[in-house]
Amino acid sequence: PVSVYADEHIASKAVAARIASLIKRKQAAGEQAVLGLATGATPIEVYAELIRLHKEEGLSFQNVITFNLDEYYPMQPDAVQSYVRFMDENLFNHIDIKRENIHVPDGTLKKEAIADYCLAYEQQITEVGGLDLQVLGIGRTGHIGFNEPGSAPNSGTRLVTLDDLTRRDASRDFGGKENVPTKAITMGIGTIFKAREIILMAWSKKKAPIIKKAVEGEISGNVPATYLQLSDNVEFILDTEAASELT
Ligand code: F6R
């Protein structure tokens, strides 16, 4: 289903409220909540609202386990563009999550260690019972995580090559496209699909054409997000501008 909100602020609060209610439901049952998280501009306000809920309304993250979708490769965790740093600054440093419960793909590995690491990442998700909720943004190539066009629907966590458009879109963060890594480690489409709930968020006119393709287009590896049409557990949460080309 598709839910359209007046603006991204209201939409972000609604997503944060859903995450908070999942966390509290799990807490009440004495269980852990396993969240799949995204970086980028899209979820920033969701994380800001979760921080507010923690600081002002006592929402605790003691029972929360997180797995981030992706990280550039290579990438040092303390680099400005690192997703480890992004998550610390935009969420983890401001809540009471246990450090050992946080997982972000490691951009510092030696090439020959990556395949085993990716299998272990999948296994860690499985061992905690799978993802309860996966939060996604969408790239203008139609990528979810860094699953670029050509990604297989059953793909797992792996090293991928970034699309040229993705690197162009990231060029501002890196001070030029030539500085954007050509690779990334990402959860696969198959990994994302196993989540019990999936929320894909998109804001602004810039995302309207790809949202039209993702929601209404033919299901195809050329637009990886179209695979989400095959899931019964996905919700597209949009602002009016991102939804503006939907029929
Ligand atoms: C980030 C990720 C990407 C982004 C997408 C949109 O962890 O997996 O798929 O969600 O590139 O990025 P923004 O939100 O910056 O437009």
UniProtKB/TrEMBL annotation:
Q: Which residue numbers delimit the Glucosamine/galactosamine-6-phosphate isomerase domain?
A: 10-229
| Native source species | Gillisia lutea
Lineage of origin: Bacteria, Pseudomonadati, Bacteroidota, Flavobacteriia, Flavobacteriales
Record's protein name: Glucosamine-6-phosphate deaminase
Which gene codes for it? nagB
